[in-house]
Amino acid sequence: MKNRFLNLKTLSLACTALLLTVSCSDDPDSPVIEEEKEDSSRWITVAAARMGDNPGDGNGGTLIYSISSDDAKAPSVSIEPFDNGFIVPSNRTARLQASEDGSTIFNISYAGDTGGNYSKYTVNGGQNFVQTGTGVSIAEYVGTAPRWIKLFDGDNTGAAVYVSTVNEVDDNGTPNDLLDDTYFRTDATIGVVTLDLVNSTINNFEEHNIALSPELEAQGYYIGRIDMPTLNAAGDKLYIGASIRKVDPATTERESDFERLGSQTIVLDYPSLLNPTVIASSVGYGDTNGYRSINAFEYNGSVYQANQNDPEGSRILKIGANNQYDDSYDFNLDEALGVQDAYILAWRPAANGKGVLAYRHAGSVEGAAGAQGFFALIDLNAQTATKIDAIPYEPDFYLFQYQGFAVDGTEIFVTQAPVGKNGNIYAIETETGEVTKGAELVNVEGSHYIGTF
C-alpha cells in the first residue's frame, strides 16, 4: 500500500508528499482521495450508517470508504468515512453488495424518490467510487424498498423479492364484522425479479400465489415475509427464505406468540422462476428470511441457511443437492456457544467452510440502540462455534443492522465500533482463528458501522 494518509488531519501532508499517489481536491471540505494497492491486496470497502433521529437507527444515510486489505490490517491507519466517505444513493440505509474480488460495489436504493434504482461503482480507493454502466429501476416489479441480494454466479445476477398478503373471508361483511364473517386463509402473493448486473437489464419477473397446507392455513398460518434468494450448487433452483406468520382466525388480528412451524423455504426453478414449492425443516423452527445480510450460502454442494426466532436458539440448517432439508444436520448455536436464545444477526463462510458469525443472546446487555452483539468463529463441517474474544465488546456494540463481511481467501474482515464510538477493522484468519487488529474507524455521535465489502 503506498498511501497511508487517509483522513482529513493528514490530507495537507498527503497533497505535498510527491511520493504518495494521492489526488486531492482544491476544496479541503470535500477531498477526493485515491489510493493504489499492491497486486497481492484487494479493496476492503467499509460501510458506515449515519444516525437519523435516534442513535443506531442508520436512517441518516450510508457512506462507504475503501482501503487495501494490507492497510485494513494496519492499526497505524485511520479512516473517517463519516467525514469524507462516498455517499451511497439511498433514502435510508443502503442495501449494498460487492463483487467477489472487491473491485465493484452494487447498490439498489432503499425507499424515497430513488427507491428501487440499481447502480454499480468501480472501487478506486478512499472515497473514489466511479459509477459505471447505466442504471435501471426495479421499483415497478418489487417496489421502492426492495429486498435484494447478489447471487453467487460470478457477479452476473441479482435477485429481488416481495410478498403481499390479504385475508380471505366470506362475503357477508368485513373482517371486523365477526358475527357475519368467516376467515378462510391468508393469501400470499410473491414477486421475484432477476437483474443482469453487468448490462443493467431485467432478466425475468414472475409472480406466484404461495400456499401452505389447508390445515395450517385454516389455523391462520401464512408466509408473511421473504428475502435472501440463493442459488443451489447446480444453478437450477432458487431458494427464497421465508418468515411464517399467523393471524387469529376468530379476529383476523396478527398474533405475536404462536406455535412455530418448521423452518420454511420457497423453491423455484431457475432461471425461469416457475414451479414454486415450499420445503420445511423438521429440525429448525425459526424464520429463514434473515434481515439485511445474506442468510444462506452454497458450500460443498449444499446450501447452508441460518434461521432466526427459533424457540431453541438460532440454527444453521442444510439443504441438500436434492433440494430438500437435510434433517440429519443440526447446528444449534445455543449448544455450540453455551448460551441461551442465540440469534444469528449475520454470517459468512469462506471457501473452506469456516466463517464468522454475528450474534446476540439472552445475556446480551441492552445498549443505546439495542442488544449487544458478538462475533464467533464457526466451522460448518464440525458444527462448532467459538466466541472471538480478541475483539472487544461493549453494551453499545450493535450488530442488528450488520450487512457485510469481506472475504479474502480464508481471511474475513469485520468492523468493530460501538454506536457513536471509535473502533477498528479486524481480520480473522478462519483456518487458525488468528485475529489481527487493523485500521482505526473514526465514528461520530449516534452512528455505527455496518460491515465490510
SSE layout and pairing:
Elements lengths: L10 H6 L26 E7 L12 E7 H4 L5 E2 L1 H4 L1 E3 L6 E4 L5 E5 L8 E7 L5 E9 L1 H4 L4 E4 L6 E13 L13 E14 L4 E10 L3 H5 L2 E11 L5 E10 L17 E6 L7 E4 L15 E4 L2 E5 L8 E5 L11 E2 H5 L5 E7 L4 E7 L13 E6 L4 E4 L18 E3 L2 E6 L6 E7 L5 E7 L6 E5 L1
| CATH third-tier fold name | Methylamine Dehydrogenase, Chain H
- Could you say what the CATH architecture is? 7 Propeller
Low-confidence stretches: 1-30
Shape: globular
Count of helix runs = 6
Task: Determine the structural class based on helices, strands and strand pairing.
Answer: mainly beta
Largest sheet: 5 strands, mixed
Superfamily at the CATH H level? YVTN repeat-like/Quinoprotein amine dehydrogenase
* Mean pLDDT across every amino acid position: 91
Q: Termini separation (Å)?
A: 18 Å
Count of separate structural domains: 1
Quaternary arrangement of the chains shown? single chain
Helical residue percent? under 10%
**Number of strand segments:** 29
| Strand percentage | 35-45%
Strand order in space, largest sheet: 3-28-27-26-25
CATH class identity: Mainly Beta
Computed Rg: 22 Å
